[in-house]
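Box 3.1 A note on notation
Throughout this textbook, protein chains are presented in two layers. The first layer is the amino acid sequence; the second is a token string describing backbone geometry. Keep the layers aligned when reading.
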Amino acid sequence: MFGRRNQATTDETPISVQDPKPQGKGRPTPKRSEAQGRRRSPVTAPANRKEAYRQQRDRDRVQRARQREGMLRGEEKYLLPRDKGPVRRFARDWVDSRRLPGQYFLPAVLVIMLLSVVPFPPQIRVAVLTVYTLALPIVMVAVIGNSFYVGYRVKQAAAQKFPGENLKGIGFYAAMRSSQIRRLRFPKPMVLPGGKPVTPPSS
């Protein structure tokens, strides 16, 4: 009697699940554990330590590329601490919307240095060296004057636009950016000379 009762109360019937494929005739219905295992997405585990290191290195490279692109576009979450905040963004746009003498400093110095080493004839070489001797200090004085002008103007304009904000270092930040070649500025300029926004390249 007890054996019959235990046998009757034990349910060995498989639990049916929804299967994208219809069950064929004579095919047993999958049990719950089989159905759950089928629904799980396969995970590709590294075969060894070398493979795991390679996968991690690939993920790091993709992440660094994403961060760099975000920094170039000026996305706030990817910027360095020195570039973050609306005040720094204002300083960058102020500098990038103007053609300032400081941005021509490095190209001018490079041209002067190249001319000084070119093997010109003696008479021309004397004239070139004279220009080199006179031009380099003049360019440096112009850059220093430009830096003071940009720093003062940006700090003054930022104080009017952002009253109560911390403006420490904003003048130096703007002056340093104004002395860089436009194409090499980082983050990239978001405005053109004149104030118009940069048109993003069409994909």
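Residues 1-11, 13-22 have pLDDT under 50 and may be disordered. The CA atoms of residues 159 and 165 lie 8 Å apart.
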